[in-house]
Hints:
- The structure is a homodimer of 191-residue chains.
- The first copy, chain A, is of the alpha+beta class and 191 residues long.
- The first copy, chain A, has a domain of 110 residues: Jelly Rolls (Sandwich).
- The first copy, chain A, contains 9 helices and 6 strands.
- In chain A, a hairpin with a 3-residue loop joins strand 3 and strand 4.
- The interface between A and B is medium-sized, with 34 and 34 residues.
- Chain A binds a DNA duplex (30 and 30 nucleotides) through helix 9.
Amino acid sequence: xxxxxxxxxxxVALTPQEQELFLSKTETKPxxxxxxxxxxxxxxxxxxxxxxxxxxxxxxxxxxxxxVLHFACEGWWIGDMYSYISGKxxxxxxxxxxxxxxxxxxxxxxxxxxxxxxxxxxxxxxxAENSLVSHQERLMDNLSLTAEERFEKFCSKYxxxxxxxxxxxxxSYIGVTPEFFSKMKARLLKK
Amino acid sequence: xxxxxxxxxxxVALTPQEQELFLSKTETKPxxxxxxxxxxxxxxxxxxxxxxxxxxxxxxxxxxxxxVLHFACEGWWIGDMYSYISGKxxxxxxxxxxxxxxxxxxxxxxxxxxxxxxxxxxxxxxxAENSLVSHQERLMDNLSLTAEERFEKFCSKYxxxxxxxxxxxxxSYIGVTPEFFSKMKARLLKK
DNA sequence: AAGGGCACTTAACCTAGATTAAGAAATTAT
DNA sequence: ATAATTTCTTAATCTAGGTTAAGTGCCCTT
Lengths: 191, 191
């Protein structure tokens, strides 16, 4: 299991004291599958780091159709960035897909940490930049690739997720209906 | 015209000396429309801030179809974040659409600035976070809205751009062909 | 001022993926 | 175990948006 400190150490070096301070501002909790950590309409007051298990963020259209924004498994960060930084009610739900242990950082604590350990500004800058790059790529993929190509890309990028999460969520992530996804999968298997 | 210093001042306060230092690490240049500042396959060594005029970033599929990632006009930042942070050849072109004045920061200079003015880590963190949020929103819009709804959203978000940039680029940005865009526009005008 | 590209429009036809519906398989709960 | 609920599959039908093609108008350039 990759710890949150190892995750930070990938980009900035914290002293033992800083590490301790950092951990003191976090809270680690277990959650059962199906738990909703955050609902649309609420203000996101925390950011989440996944120690183990799987989470997803998604929104709901017209009270019917879900769209998966993100999956997060071991070693990933997840949250509702819009609500978190704006302080306004968000559109995202955050759900546990597989029993998970999650490190929680409140916005208050994160602000304090920025004051006390300025290096963390760099860390979260790099995190945001990397996330931005992958969103840009996904956006361009959605504009230029077919559903089949997006699925293949998803498989090579997140090979472990395919076995673990219901395929309707993967369909939603790549932007097709579950029915079409099923048809497409059958077609690919014949090849 | 909004200066780059005012843009920074929105999020962090620099002292006069810091402001001077910052400007000394930048270069401001005029560019004629149609100039290509960066091509796919090149490594992006700079980030760009637009003083005036309009730029766009886009990629090209199979040597044929362009997809617009971004427009940038007065007061916006633009570049190829993937190539810039990875140091690898990128997929994006950066083109001037309307005669422009652009502030250029090289990666080297930006790294030095991070050392000398740590507050800039915060500024660029906030910049990346905001950009991330708008990419997430655009991604979800592409998954859940019709072309017509995306167009309406584009109009209310970037009212000035509609008059100024060729509509085929706007079609590309919202993710439809120029022909369909034209048809859709005619349909909307009838209402 | 003339001509050569672009940018835009229109229209006929086409297709990837959506929708609807019904049944089968797999999980979950009791 | 068994019932209940979800998830997945299959198939028929439909549509938003793509493709192809032809024509119009409008900047640019010289």
